[in-house]
């Protein structure tokens, strides 16, 4: 009696597209996928919090591909996570937990690169593009932080705090707090950060070196 042939689980087209997309690509185009039949896609596109988590994860994954060593193992790990953790989810709570765990894993994958970037934002900077909370700011080597909006002071006497996973917290005396995740830096030129909860990448170009 012949044994049935074993089959490798088929990867849905939308998963393959994400894994093979160019490094700058967006995570999900919910307008284009409005008629999607996959329950996971419908859940993500229906909830802004999940769309933001998906964008954050997508950007971290692409940063890790560029900076965390050989791409093949990371692609395999990402595909395994999609198949075993993301795709089986049938409610938003499951997806939120799956995304939180994978985002934490990707940030750990970036940590060796992060260890070399402690002073990446030191200097005077201007926003390059529309994304980004600050128009212009100055970050000092001892954690000093001042910013300007339309040439007017926005934060004076603030602080920036670095974390080993490329997290940056910017805080002011009046309670304003901004969270960044550094994903790219070109010494004495520019850097790029993610602002969790805000889609896309914020880029800043150097005005004056420290």
UniProtKB/TrEMBL annotation:
This is Lysozyme inhibitor LprI family protein. Residues 42-106 form the Lysozyme inhibitor LprI-like N-terminal domain. Residues 1-27 form the signal peptide. Keywords: Signal. It comes from Roseateles violae. It comes from the Bacteria. InterPro entries: LprI-like_N, Lysozyme_Inhibitor_LprI.
């Amino acid at each position: 009696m012949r044994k049935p042939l074993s089959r490798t689980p088929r990867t849905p087209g939308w998963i393959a597209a994400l894994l093979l997309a160019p490094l700058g690509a967006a995570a999900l185009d919910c307008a284009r996928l409005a008629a999607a039949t996959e329950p996971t896609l419908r859940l993500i596109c229906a909830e802004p919090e999940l769309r933001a988590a998906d964008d954050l994860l997508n950007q971290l994954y692409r940063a890790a591909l560029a900076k965390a060593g050989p791409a093949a193992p990371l692609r395999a790990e990402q595909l395994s996570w999609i198949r075993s953790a993301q795709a089986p989810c049938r409610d938003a709570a499951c997806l939120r937990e799956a995304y939180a765990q994978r985002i934490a894993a990707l940030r750990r994958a970036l940590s060796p690169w992060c260890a070399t970037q402690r002073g990446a934002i030191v200097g005077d900077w201007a926003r390059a593009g529309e994304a980004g909370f600050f128009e212009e700011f100055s970050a000092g080597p001892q954690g000093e932080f001042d910013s300007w909006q339309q040439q007017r002071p926005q934060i004076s006497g603030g602080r920036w705090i670095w974390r080993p996973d490329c997290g940056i917290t910017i805080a002011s005396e009046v309670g304003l707090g901004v969270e960044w995740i550094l994903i790219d830096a070109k010494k004495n030129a520019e850097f790029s950060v993610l602002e969790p909860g805000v889609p896309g990448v914020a880029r800043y170009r150097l005005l004056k070196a420290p």
